[in-house]
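anyone seen this seq b4? input:
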Amino acid sequence: MNERWKTAALGGLIGAAVSLAAVFGVFALGLIPAASDARLQGYMLGHPKLVYQMKELSDAQDAEAARQEEQAAVDKLGPKRFFDPAIAFVTGPQKAKNTIVEFYDYNCVHCRKTSHTVRKFYQKHKNDTRFAFIEFPIFGENSINAARTSIAARAQGDRFLAFHFGLMSESAEIDRDLLFQNAKSSGLDLAKLNAGIVDPATDKTLLADSRLAREAKFQGTPVFIVNGKVHEGEISEADLKELIR
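predicted toks r here
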């Protein structure tokens, strides 16, 4: 990129940064001296890193505002909405001290990356923690088909979880072939599964799942609710330990 284009690009960023300066109160913080627009532009041209620092701060503030909005929505909805068997696959003691909800898409890379942690935690705590697994397909037709198949598989009890974690361990996009390969290897009754897929109740559940995600203000996957606290994105064992303590 030549110097002319560099200057033009930086000038555009500075135009946005001048507005951001008012939002952040950077004058009050002493980060930028009070000055006319021309002097301010000159100062920022001499300190270009400020523009990017302010953009990072703006993004962080937006993310925190969204997190607070999600948390407020989840608090308002209350735990019963997320542990409704008509909405989620629910397992674990009804009066468990700890609870974990996950919204996921089988074609979500981040859901797959964190699935090993979820599976390990489930295997260790399935007798003392209540879990709710909720489909939130956001990556197109294959994801919707996977979600409908998953909802149909819920009727087969613990075999659902073998199917669920099997899909999450795949590296390729989940299409119809992978769905039924995993269904067969998970020991699901394929006749019952096919009947469930075309059952209107499955579509009703899928709509209810998506509606709940929207009411909770969720925009992506995965999203976890651990003991009532929202955690967006991949989750680690350390995150779970921190949220559950």
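Confidence is low (pLDDT under 50) at residues 1-29. The beta strands are 89-91, 98-104, 129-135, 223-226, 229-232. kinda curious what u guys think
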